[in-house]
Amino acid sequence: MGRPRPRRLLRASFAIFSLAAIAAGGPAALGQPGGKPADPKAAPAAPAASPSAGETLRHAARGRFLVGAAVSSWGLNDPKVAGLVASQFDSLTAENEFKPASLSRQPGQYRFEAADRFVEFARAHDMKLVGHNLCWHSQAPAWLFRGQDNKPLPRDQALKNLKDHIDAVAGHFKGKVIGWDVVNEAISDAKDEYLRKTPALRAIGDDYIAKAFEFAHAADPGAELYYNDYSNENPVKREKTVRLVRELKAKGVRIDAVGMQCHFVLSDADAIDKLDQSIAAYAAEGVKVAITELDVDVLPRRGRVADIGALEKGGDNPYKEGLPPAVAEAQARFYARLFEVVLKRPGVVNRVTFWGVHDGASWLNGFPVRGRTNHPLLWDRQLKPKPAFGAVLDVLARP
Ligand code: GLA
After folding, report:
1. Where is the active site (predicted)?
2. Domains identified in the chain, total number
3. How far is CA 82 from CA 131, 278, 352, in A?
């Protein structure tokens, strides 16, 4: 996968972000005026899904790991979605609202209103809140690491900006989040390159990652700190991730868990075995594992990675009218195997977060090919539970 130049990548990322948000519900998702504010205290509607005997994911997994969902503001605005989130999940991630670009457009200027609704919703429904994210090359304002001329800032200035940003954000949410994805997607997909050449790396150097973790710990010493990435079930990226964990630990930097995004593709027959091996490898380094952005893409695609700058043209859209039962069953088996792996090492995987709640709002309707009808999650577009939902509950019910 070629690496787009930063400006292109940023534009592409914003385009996807905006498209997904607009497709999903309009301005509220972008934190723009005109969207109805979420009412965090809205009583959860009766769950639209009717799991067997009313069983829920959060109850079925209790005491073993948190089950989370990533939701956007517009999702919280929809009483049916909000009800499903509150009843089924005990951990919440904001799909966009905590990202650097959502919080700050100008140096020193922050808008926390949209993100604060998540704090309130989590509190009202006894959910843990996860901060996503403090430092990423995408959906981040240029001022952090680049000058007016778009060139990297001098190291000292960039370090100060990183610290100021983390102080402002982690400071604001201090005591309100259980942990932070401190750095997102810093490892390169290229076989022979360790770290991605991000704006932060170009301005600061390789140690921007350690610095971000140090600043986050100083700003909120009670928060867990995670390194989050996609495709880190794959051996090459796994090795680089192990290297990063070792380097951070050797410097005495706190890191609690590796976040494995797990944007999986149903046709990837080896994915679950690779996940299993990677969980073991990360556990051996003395860190926990959080599955942070789980979904299972059922559509054909060329690339396997979840780099949101990597759009594809064309591509079939075979399930416009609905997911054929055989595919829904295959997806259910995929999810079941994944949860079997999660349960294999008690205490290692401490959270499984789905990237969305229902198929209609998934980012995968627009990625990697725009405008398709994907079916990656546990609830369908009518908020009816799919076979995958029952399959996950069945695994969690086993003695
Ligand atoms: C990455 C990011 C998420 C989200 C997804 C796609 O995985 O970590 O925040 O943007 O891409 O929506």
Report:
1. 293 (nucleophile)
2. 1
3. 19, 33, 19
